[in-house]
Write a structure and sequence with these properties.
Pfam families: HCS_D2, HMGL-like, LeuA_dimer. This protein has about 550 residues and is of the alpha/beta class. It has 3 domains: about 260 residues, TIM Barrel (Alpha-Beta Barrel), CATH 3.20.20.70; about 90 residues, no CATH class; about 55 residues, no CATH class. The longest helix has 19 residues. About 40% of the residues lie in helices and about 20% in strands.
Amino acid sequence: MTRERLYLYDTTLRDGQQTQGVQFSTAEKLKIAAALDALGVDHIEGGWPGANPTDSAFFEEVGQTRATLTAFGMTKRAGRSAANDEVLAAVTNAGTPAVCLVGKTHDFHVTTALGITLEENIANIAASVSHLVGQGREALFDAEHFFDGYKANAPYALDCLHAALEAGARWIVLCDTNGGTLPHEIGQIVQDVIEQGIPGDHLGIHTHNDTETAVAGSLAAVMAGARQIQGTLNGLGERCGNANLTALIPTLLLKAPYKDLFETGVSMEALARLTRTSRMLDDILNRVPQKQVAYVGASAFAHKAGLHASAILKDPTTYEHIDPGLVGNRRVVPMSNQAGQSNLRRRLSEMGLEVDKGEPALARILDRVKARETEGYSYDTAQASFELLARDELGMLPEFFEVKRYRVTVERRKNKYDRMVSLSEAVVVVKVDGEKKLSVSESMDEAGNDRGPVNALSKALAKDLGRYQEAIDDMRLVDFKVRITQGGTEAVTRVIIDSEDGQGRRWATVGVSANIVDASFEALLDAVRWKLVRDGGQG
């Protein structure tokens, strides 16, 4: 059976930047574009050249891409030719092989927002698209507010589409700009548009998520005949966001009937990098990934209830709709105050700790987890700290060293250039093999910048651990997250630290205290101890 080709058009670099609080630098846009290209999307919309310096710089610096690089702009303004419209010229001067122009297709917006006649708007669409085609560009027409326009005045909305098609547009993209059109309406209207002479293999769909149905609306359009889907990584976009490609792509590749009817430019190998790509974007945005999002969320394949975990042990398909590894995610059976012994024994087994059913230590571990979670600890993501807790109750945690005391100071002073700078310094005293060792470390980096008190503590702790020193020389702190778990005067700080070593292993540890430095130090201690346990250190 021959499958039809579906084309994926990514608008993260433009629509994504409309998200409140999101502002990409040029370097960040280049990094995201490279990840999108590796993923296998067909078009990468880089932004609106001429609209802001960042977008213009992106088009100047971006290199060759497998995907078709696309510039975004708007149709020419009334009263001037396409060749003499400086706004349109800035878009075409970016030199991209494809250009997407947005134009009005809702009569209300034409007369109210643009203040021109309906005929003038159609003439602007046709002239703009023809201008692009004459330059040898692949022309796309974004039919703004199309679904609302179609419901208000279908003949006029269709006239706008026909004007773009007859002028040579390769793709005509139907936009649910306000995000209020439901999937069944989208499917019916797309079908009507095709019946009115706009070929499905020239139709795209662009949905917004204001009713939480952007992905469903896109799929409805595809089943009705549209063959291009526009969306963003992680569903970024103004208001409630755009159609989320991290949900659309695996659905198209893994779910019937889509996987049987269509093919895309995304390979199964690239699909296995989807979770990593999603989290890379969140790292760039310096925001916490949403755990509950489909396919790529940290909790997408988490089984917290004991009944579920017991079934998962027998057959993962009992509570999982796909193999998490297909999208680069993983199954998690977290330890929590709802955990049962089936969860616990499975988690211990994954750590290489085989414990017999009915072992008294199992109940003690569960009680300790529940008690600590009431204090603010969370072991859902800090699996290394959980392992240390479990090993302690099982009598399998060596005492490598003892921390006798630590101190951190932060000094604010003027440097030789008469500028105010900060300097953090930490002192850590540990006892190893009966010998006390005092280590002092500053947090200044090679560029002369203060990396903060936690960095100073980390360097001091790892400076001299006697016979264990060699085992920790290749570990480094790669992420540091702080959460306030309660409010007001009883606020408790939870710190999660991610560490990595030369073997590529990455692990997370947790610390909790009313004092952020104390919570950080607890997490740092766990990170070092887990590393020593895994490298076979003996206390």
